[in-house]
Automatic annotation (TrEMBL):
Keywords: Disulfide bond, Glycoprotein, Membrane, Receptor, Repeat, Signal, Transmembrane, Transmembrane helix
Presence of keyword Disulfide bond: yes
GO molecular function: hormone binding
Disulfide bridges in this chain: 65-77, 72-90
Places the protein is found: Membrane
Main location: membrane
InterPro entries, alphabetized: LDL_receptor-like_sf, LDLR-related, LDLR_class-A_CS, LDrepeatLR_classA_rpt
Recorded GO CC terms: apical plasma membrane; receptor complex
Protein's UniProt name: Uncharacterized protein
PANTHER family xref list: LOW-DENSITY LIPOPROTEIN RECEPTOR-RELATED PROTEIN 2-RELATED, MEGALIN, ISOFORM A
Membrane topology category: Single-pass membrane protein
Native organism taxonomy: Eukaryota, Metazoa, Spiralia, Lophotrochozoa, Annelida
Keyword S-adenosyl-L-methionine: no
Amino acid sequence: GDNRCISGSWRCDREGDCSESEDEAGCVYPTTPAPMTNDKCIIGEWQCDNYPDCSDGTDELGYTCTSDQFKCSDGKCIANSWHCDGVDDCADSGDEAGYTCTSDQFKCSDGKCIANSWH
């Protein structure tokens, strides 16, 4: 509504990114049963999705990242494509640490690698 653009992947992700959450309007979420935590039921797809739906965060604990994910030091799983992409996705920036830039990347003075086209 405010003419701001967001990534298409943010649509229907259960998080209002637009000023009036219109990116979540009309979304249909699966209704797979999931465990109860603190007397709150959540759908199965919300478990281990890197977004704490339970007040104590237990829906995000005790799982292993898949082969197409990078595991942050705090246990959070992010997409492999987010690893060393120049954006801090882990709380401790561990997904960007110790990375050597590729030939199609520019290395900033802070050590981050960005696409040559962004330079």
